[in-house]
Amino acid sequence: NAGVTQTPKFRILKIGQSMTLQCAQDMNHNYMYWYRQDPGMGLKLIYYSVGAGITDKGEVPNGYNVSRSTTEDFPLRLELAAPSQTSVYFCASSDHGSGEPNYGYTFGSGTRLTVV
Amino acid sequence: GQNIDQPTEMTATEGAIVQINCTYQTSGFNGLFWYQQHAGEAPTFLSYNVLDGLEEKGRFSSFLSRSKGYSYLLLKELQMKDSASYLCAVREKAAGNKLTFGGGTRVLVKP
After folding, report:
1. CB–CB contact A43 B87 (8 Å)
2. How far is it, in rounded angstroms, from Cα B6 to Cα B85?
3. Which of A58, A96, A110 sits opposite B42 (nearest CB)?
4. Percentage of chain B with pLDDT > 70?
5. Within an 8 Å CB–CB cutoff, is residue A101 touching chain B?
6. pLDDT tens-digit profile of A41-86?
7. What residues of chain B lie within 8 A of the CB of A110, using their CB?
8. Within 13 Å, how many C-alpha atoms sit on residue B40's CB side?
């Protein structure tokens, strides 16, 4: 059972470059999320999705885009990378309404991104 | 919106007890979570409270008072491996099952 898989684990981008952070889950969870975590800080929500074809902005969406064409995949796109986007990015999923008692998150292992 | 506060850092001795406090303000409370995060790793689920009172899970306990907007995580019989950050997160009654995280409390366990 792989859970939530994120790729790549590490990446260095130059200012102005673009990239896609991949996230896939194999638990048939309907809800998925992207968070960023700056050094010594908590997690801030970038975007989330409650199902295939449905996405919505979180707290810090500027500079990012997402899509959710399937239940399994939730890629995060960075256009025109900036140094302020240097961070660790976590993807997570949850299975709201499945009978799980607390609908907690399952996190991926993270992508460490540096923009120089 | 939500505002979640927790101390930045705490130090304790191996075998001792540490209590990490979390205060929150939210427009529609629907549960409070505690996560543990070791350096360079993803957060892992520790506990969940939605009703007032104490939830105990082995060496870890979590308490909630909804009227006070207050929770704490109690770590007993501290071990060196408990050195980590502890994140308090609140869920609102809104679409998306979204969690808002506090800044995390870094706990350092000394021998």
Report:
1. yes
2. 11
3. A110
4. 99
5. yes
6. 889 999 999 999 999 999 999 999 999 999 999 999 999 999 999 9
7. 41-42
8. 2
